[in-house]
Design the sequence.
């Protein structure tokens, strides 16, 4: 619309030159008056008389010019300022109410803003890589990793990606030992392909990435390394001269060639459980590197290529490769956007959190609405007077809304402070294994969101009272000296429905939190298959090589003998994988059984352990025997399997004495209980245990001890006992099994903590709402109560009436809330464990809790009702 | 934006039309416009200053008139308004509309 555009432009120009225009207008008017005076004088009037007559006729020049000006500027700007001033005066007058409103709104907005910041960091904000939308994650069938040889071929052959890169998924905390300068330390190192950093679009902050030559070395002896920022800061105090320095890793020299920037938090994005110290080159051609599906693969799509297109291409390439290389593992690549891989697992929880916090905000609004309505009694007169003086309905409405928005914006300030504190706290909680958690902070987007939320909340909780107050017939309000009229009754109805709504919201939140709490306890109650109490692990791989099995076995013998002699230690054993942390699986079948493509052999998880491990970890032996120190390389090869594998391989036979195909045939000597290795919520699956003294195929030695004392107090004793064996023994990594369990349930606890907090807040708000309504109705009905008491009603009887009315409201709120919970809780079902979404116990418990809280919240003001002095109440009007 | 209560008893929008019509006579300042309306209507229509200046602002905002500073007959600084091309068009539209309305009113009242 060109006409309105022109008007807009003129208006804008006007606003820019406002001062100038004001002067112009005044001058113009002065000219007008001067001309009038001239004329009056010409008609024969005296100058002073003419002057005053002209001014009289012209009227108030300020008012005139204001009116003329209001053509240009939107009038509401002026009104807004007036309303704001009015609001602040009102706030000062009613400081208690104001403080309460701001506090409640602040808590609500703080919660909303915090949850938004978490969602923002994990879901909305793009990953900190160049053009992250084109990055793709590749999984292989149900594995997260692919065989390196397949990777090399895919990288060569595909046309969809500008490049593919990867890293070894089989790195473990403390894989490499740093010795030489300073205290010896176990480092977590990730072997990466040379192009990983450039593919992600992240350059080292100092130095360079790996060269092609460095990527052709030996897996066991990386010639170069790149430090992670956190390791650089911790170990080298951010010293920029570390570049070019040579360190000793597993007794081999390795040169520092670069330092990654602080923004590159590899672990935080890809593997939140395992902080990474250094990156080392992964020589794809080295035959001695771990084989099998070991490689995590990311790709960068070429411009214009889609995930679906690339998927189709890789699928056909994979078919071809599987045919050409039957000796390799099967390849079934599946692609998804990298962002979905990173934050996908957390998104159901985030969705639940967002819903919960929205409910909290609605509850806050209902509560504040209620509070405003309670205050209306006092405000109604004021509004009536203003209306009588000529304020239009829309003007009054606007004033009321301005007030509530101003209040909620003050609340937003409080909320922002809370959110900043909360996000800062959250981002430093390393106890929680969640991706990108330490990037959680209140950024510009969260700030904008908070402002919007505050404005919306102000509108929402102000609208109802504003409509109420302006809709009341104004003249009758002035006459009505506080008597209850039909308006007041409707008013009460409105407030009752708000309380019902509050109770319903609180009910939904409580049911959600209740279901999650029940699930949490069910998870903790799960039979893990091992006993985490009083068990702990210490990593003990020696800093010197163990060239032969006999050397290795004498080391093992030494370690176990020394460990078992430490006072307080009941049992000790060595394993290569800790429960709930590390994992790998091999395929293994029963000897004599024929397997084919249709019936593949089972793929049990493999643990390499010594005698004593089962006692130390608390894994019960079901039949047969434990390993002994006599199970050595020279003897018959043996294996211990778990119940699931026993059932799978020999469903109708005694597994003891049977042979499995691993390592050319191993005899089953024992069956142990299943251990939940992947997660507390998932059954362990098939497992087999190989005696460590018969193999060298393991990546770590974890000494596991069980003690009579608290596990933490053992570290010093163990260290002293083992030091003589290996003076370079690093001692940092001492983990109790309870920590392992704790970490595994941490995402669940994170959600639970927040949701329970919200539910508690909701319960408080709802009971405040009930309290306010009942105490208001007590004060309104003081006169009636006085009459009733004068006529002989007992205080008990009166109290009962109020409490009963509340129970009525609560019942209604509960009915709505429980029905809504039943519908909404099915959204939770992916997060529940051991309880159904309609768990009757939870629903009943919440109903009882809410009813009790409601009755209590009503009882306190109701007690006041029974203390009304009948005479005073009757005289008061 | 800006409620404007026309204080004269004219039909709404009439004052704007009158001002535009007066300005077809040339560049005039506010006072002269008020005087001319009064004179030409044989003192029947008196434009109140409280209506005139908002009207002038409104017309200027719509781009129908333009104001510029000049000197009045007795050498005072005054703001003279002139009709723009848009204003002429608007005036033509308004006057034909006004003719229709008054004609219709007259027919109902039996004047015509």
Sequence:
């Amino acid at each position: 619309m060109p006409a309105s555009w022109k008007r807009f432009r003129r208006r804008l120009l006007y606003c820019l030159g406002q001062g100038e225009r004001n002067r112009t207008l005044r001058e113009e008017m002065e000219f007008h008056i001067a001309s009038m005076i001239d004329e009056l004088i010409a008609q024969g009037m005296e100058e002073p008389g003419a002057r005053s007559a002209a001014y009289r006729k012209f009227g108030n020049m300020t008012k005139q010019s204001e009116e003329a000006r209001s053509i240009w500027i939107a009038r509401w700007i002026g009104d807004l300022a007036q309303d704001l001033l009015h609001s602040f005066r009102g706030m000062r007058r009613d400081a208690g109410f104001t403080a309460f409103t701001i506090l409640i709104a602040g808590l609500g907005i703080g919660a909303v803003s915090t949850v938004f910041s978490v969602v923002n960091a994990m879901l909305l904000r793009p990953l900190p890589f160049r053009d992250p939308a084109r990055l793709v994650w590749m999984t292989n069938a149900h594995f997260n990793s692919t065989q390196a040889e397949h990777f090399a071929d895919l990288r060569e052959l595909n046309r969809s990606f500008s490049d593919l890169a990867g890293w070894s998924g089989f790195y473990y905390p403390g894989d490499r030992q740093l010795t030489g300068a300073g205290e010896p330390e176990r480092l977590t190192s990730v072997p990466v392909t040379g192009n990983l950093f450039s593919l992600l679009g992240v350059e080292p902050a100092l130095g360079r990435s790996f060269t092609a030559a460095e990527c052709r070395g030996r897996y066991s002896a990386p010639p170069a390394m790149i430090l992670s920022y956190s390791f650089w800061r911790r170990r080298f105090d951010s010293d920029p001269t570390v570049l070019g320095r040579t360190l000793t890793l597993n007794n081999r020299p390795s040169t520092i060639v670069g330092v990654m920037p602080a923004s590159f938090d590899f672990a935080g994005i890809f593997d939140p459980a395992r902080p990474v110290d250094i990156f080392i080159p992964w020589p794809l051609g080295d035959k001695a590197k771990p084989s099998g599906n070991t490689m995590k693969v990311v790709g960068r799509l070429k411009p214009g290529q889609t995930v679906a297109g690339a998927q189709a291409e890789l699928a056909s390439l994979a078919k071809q490769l599987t045919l050409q290389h039957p000796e390799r593992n099967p390849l079934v690549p599946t692609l998804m956007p990298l962002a979905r891989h990173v934050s996908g697992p957390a998104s159901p929880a985030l969705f639940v959190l967002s819903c919960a916090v929205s409910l909290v905000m609605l509850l806050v609004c209902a509560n504040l609405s209620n509070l405003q309505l309670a205050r209306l009694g006092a405000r109604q007169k004021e509004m009536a007077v203003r209306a009588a003086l000529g304020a239009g309905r829309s003007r009054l409405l606007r004033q009321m809304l301005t007030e509530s928005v101003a209040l909620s914006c003050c609340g937003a300030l409080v909320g922002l402070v809370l959110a900043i504190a909360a996000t800062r706290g959250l981002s430093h909680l390393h106890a929680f294994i969640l991706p990108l958690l330490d990037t959680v902070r209140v950024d510009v987007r969260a700030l904008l969101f908070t402002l919007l939320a505050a404005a919306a909340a102000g509108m929402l909780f102000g609208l109802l009272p504003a409509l109420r107050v302006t809709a009341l017939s104004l003249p009758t309000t002035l006459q009505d000296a506080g008597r209850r009229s039909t308006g007041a009754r409707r008013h009460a109805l409105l407030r009752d429905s708000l309380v019902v709504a509050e109770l319903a919201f609180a009910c939904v939140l409580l049911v959600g939190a209740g279901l999650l709490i029940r699930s949490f306890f069910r998870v903790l109650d799960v039979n893990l298959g091992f006993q985490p109490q009083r068990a702990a692990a210490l990593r003990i791989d020696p800093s010197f090589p163990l060239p032969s099995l006999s050397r290795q076995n004498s080391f093992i013998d030494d370690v176990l003998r020394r460990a078992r002699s430490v006072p307080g230690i009941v049992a000790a054993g060595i394993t290569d994988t800790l429960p709930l942390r590390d994992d790998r699986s091999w395929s293994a079948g029963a000897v004599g059984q024929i397997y084919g493509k249709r019936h593949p052999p089972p793929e049990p998880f493999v643990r390499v352990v010594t005698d004593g491990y089962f006692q130390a970890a608390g894994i019960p032996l079901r039949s047969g025997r434990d390993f002994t120190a006599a199970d050595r390389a020279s003897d018959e090869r043996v294996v211990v399997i778990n119940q699931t594998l026993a059932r799978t391989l020999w469903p109708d036979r005694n597994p003891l004495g049977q042979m499995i195909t691993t390592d050319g045939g191993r005899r089953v000597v024992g069956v142990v209980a299943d251990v939940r290795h992947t997660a507390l919520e998932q059954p362990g699956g098939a497992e087999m245990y190989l005696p460590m003294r018969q193999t060298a195929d393991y990546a770590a030695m974890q000494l596991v001890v069980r003690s009579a004392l608290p596990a933490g107090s053992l570290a010093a004793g163990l260290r002293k006992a083992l030091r003589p064996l290996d003076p370079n023994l690093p001692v940092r990594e001492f983990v109790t099994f309870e920590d392992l369990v704790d970490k595994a349930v941490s995402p669940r606890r994170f959600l639970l903590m927040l949701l329970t907090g919200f539910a508690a807040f909701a319960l408080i708000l709802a009971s405040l709402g009930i309290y306010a309504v009942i105490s208001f109705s007590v004060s309104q009905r003081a006169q009636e109560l006085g009459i009733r008491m004068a006529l002989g009603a007992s205080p008990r009887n009166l109290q009962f009436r109020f409490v009963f009315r509340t129970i009525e409201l609560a019942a209604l709120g509960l009915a709505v809330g429980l029905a809504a919970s039943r519908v909404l809780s099915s959204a939770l079902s992916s997060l529940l464990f051991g309880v159904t979404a309609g768990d009757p116990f939870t629903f009943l418990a919440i109903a009882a809790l809410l009813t009790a809280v409601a009755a209590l919240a009503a009882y306190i003001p109701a007690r006041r009702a029974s203390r009304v002095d009948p005479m005073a109440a009757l005289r008061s009007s | 934006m800006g409620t404007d209560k026309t204080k004269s008893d004219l039909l709404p929008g009439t004052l704007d039309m009158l001002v535009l019509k007066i300005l077809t006579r040339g560049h005039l300042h506010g006072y002269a416009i008020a005087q001319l309306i009064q004179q030409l209507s044989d003192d029947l229509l008196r434009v109140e200053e409280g209506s005139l200046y908002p009207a002038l602002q409104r017309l200027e905002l719509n781009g129908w008139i333009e104001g510029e500073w000049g000197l009045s007959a007795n050498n005072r600084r005054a703001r003279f308004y002139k009709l723009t091309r848009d204003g002429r068009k608007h005036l033509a539209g308004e006057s034909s509309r006004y003719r229709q309305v008054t004609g219709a009113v007259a027919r109902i009242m039996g004047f015509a």
In short: The beta strands of chain B are 28-29, 65-71, 77-83. Chain B touches chain A at residues 1-4, 29-31, 34, 49-50, 53-54, 56-58, 60-63, 72, 74, 76-79 (CB under 8 Å).
